[in-house]
Amino acid sequence: LEPGGFYGWPWFYIGDHPDPNHHGAHPELASRVLVPDVLIQPHSAPLGMTFYEGHGPAGFGPEYEGDIFVALHGSWNRSLRTGYKLVRIHPGKDAYEDFVTGFVVSNQSVWGRPVAVAVAHDGALLMSDDAGNAIWRIAPGAHS
Questions:
Q1: What CATH number should be reported for the domain whose range is 46-138?
Q2: Residue 79 has pLDDT above 90, yes or no
Q3: Which of 12, 28, 43, 136 has an alpha carbon 20 to 30 Å from 87's alpha carbon atom?
């Protein structure tokens, strides 16, 4: 985010694309819209994020330092569900990678919804899940 930056709302989205509900309003602002560094699928509901600085026996290694982990809570109002995962963002790149997935059973059923993520003292990640009522510990080599 930039101080005083204009991100389009409510007239534009992802650059100079006009919102259909406000089409034609404020065309003079279209060229000022700032585009996000990383685009996430609509309705993914990013709720929690943390910058990784995990030193310790359960750490992921130096290649993860400074990366951003984001908990995508997931959609409830789409025919094809999206979100429901933990993603890893490499600063300076324009994309993310799936890091923890598998919470969607079908388009009618899920067994987990990530909410927040934190780094434990030993370098592992801790992810809260409000559908499974759990806190998941995520570490290299962990399988449960």
A1: 2.40.10
A2: no
A3: 12
